[in-house]
Amino acid sequence: MTYHPKSDFMTIMIERGFLADCTDYQGLDEALSAGVVPAYIGFDATARSLHVGSLIQIMMLRWLQKTGGKPLTLMGGGTTKVGDPSFRADERPLLDDAAIQANIDGIQQVFAAYVDYNDSPTGALMLNNDEWLSDLKYIPFLRDIGRYFSVNRMLSFESVKSRLDREQSLSFLEFNYMILQAYDFLELNRRYGCLLQMGGSDQWGNIVNGIDLTRRVIDTEVFGLTSPLLTTADGRKMGKSADGAIWLNAEMCSPYQFWQFWRNTMDADVGRFLKLYTELPIEECERLGALAGSEINDAKIILANEVTTLLHGAEAAQAAEATSREVFEKGGVGDDLPTVTLTAADIGEGIANTALFVKAGLSPSGKEAKRLFASGGASINDEVVKEPRLMTPDEFAGDLKLSAGKKRHALVKIAG
User: Are 95 and 77 in contact (CB under 8 A)?
Assistant: First the structure.
């Protein structure tokens, strides 16, 4: 990357590691320097929450607004009905309108923590592509938009080609996805003057299609910018943990669990994650990332506090840190641990200790809990659990602290 940008936004994208590719570095940089640039990222409503894997894109929208741009957060109420085939081995299950709307309601909660929705020139807008996609008339759409798409070229895009190379079915419904996403860019330019689409690097083909369509239909130049698809230092996809996805909505992943995910960052990732997921100065990110030995743990706590504060607020971050210190340094319980509450009916005449670990979210299944026991990695009230057994009601006289390894803990409480 040899281009030296003039605009604050492009400078930040390059210096902090957000930029994988751009369709026209100089053209976009000049547009950003000339005035307010509306830019969008689309988020399909396939779950009730986005997870940490989407946080890099959300931070890009935040930096855009902080440097004088206008973020457009586009909910894929229409495209979710089709399903993005990009780098998937199979077709997504189709959701009905009610499920899609419920997912959108859940996802929208997160964005207000990162961007400011207001009526100013740089105020963010929350949009839904169902507004224009679901009212399209099929034959006119094919005549007006479909004629600009070459099937030969569509087949060459990696998102399609990879499925066909593996001889895995690609439905005609999914095949339309890239046309609809391209149409989103055209429509957002018409309605809101949108000049930039951003997304992960797996969206490059879809973004380029939208740029090409907008140029062909209304002879307007627009731009595309992608972020790298992040993996952790050990090769895992960003946003995944031993317990599955790390969701951004508090009801699906508590602030403590979210904080703990960042506190458990691998040493080699600390500096990079500080640049991407916090607003600390570059020099401070590099200083903290270069710490070694026990000092790197202090950097991880700063990372966890900064990221958690952005999403859940300073009080939640402080409570999570206090709980972590209580649990890890003092061997206590802490006030903010993930908690599962059982009733007397849940326990009945007894409940398997493996079931407790599953209910507490420390193990995905009873089978995995047994493996955890066999490895010596499980404990109840700091006593190692060696084998599965039935726990009787009198063992639930007080709260139980469950531990899976040294870093994952939960409480079991009895209602009433």
Answer: no
> Which residues have C-beta within 8 Å of that of residue 380, sequence separation ≥ 6?
353, 356, 400, 401, 402, 403
Q: Are 43 and 67 in contact (CB under 8 A)?
A: no
Q: At what angle do helices 8-15 and 55-66 cross, to 10 degrees?
A: 150
End-to-end CA distance of the chain: 62
Judgement on whether residues 319 and 214 belong to the same structural domain of the protein = no
Hey, is 199 helix, strand or coil? strand
Threshold 0.85, pTM exceeds = no
Residue with tokens 């570095």: 25
Q: Identify the DSSP state of 38.
A: E
Does residue 60 lie in a domain region? yes
Distance in angstroms (rounded) separating the CA atoms of residues 316 and 321: 9
Same domain, 61 and 207: yes
In a domain, 284, yes or no: yes
Two tokens, residue 132: 């224009």
Question: With contact defined as beta carbons under 8 Å apart, do 72 and 39 qualify?
Answer: yes
Give CA–CA dist 175/268, Å, rounded: 39
Concatenate the DSSP letters of all residues of 210-266 into one string. HHHHHHHHH----EEEEE---B-TTSPBTTEETTEE-BSSTTTS-HHHHHHHHHT--
Q: What is the pLDDT of residues 111-167, one digit of tens each?
A: 999 999 999 999 999 999 999 998 888 888 888 898 888 888 888 877 777 777 777
Binding residues for ATP: 240
Residue 197, judged by CB atoms within 10 A of its CB (0-12, 13-18, 19+), counts as: buried
In this structure, what token pair is assigned to residue 349?
A: 């005449």
Q: How many domains does the chain have?
A: 3
pLDDT in tens, 17-67: 999 999 999 999 999 999 999 999 999 888 889 999 999 999 999 999 999
CB contact at 8 A, 217 and 148? yes
Please enumerate, by residue number, every residue annotated as part of a binding site for L-tyrosine. 40, 177, 181
Specify the higher pLDDT residue, 174 or 121.
121
Q: Is the pLDDT of residue 384 over 80?
A: yes
Question: Residue 105, Cα to own-chain centre: how many angstroms?
Answer: 16
**Short-list 348, 353, 359, CA closest to 410:** 359
CATH code for position 344: 3.10.290.10
| Proportion of the chain above pLDDT 70, given as a percent | 92
Residue 144 and residue 190 in one domain: yes
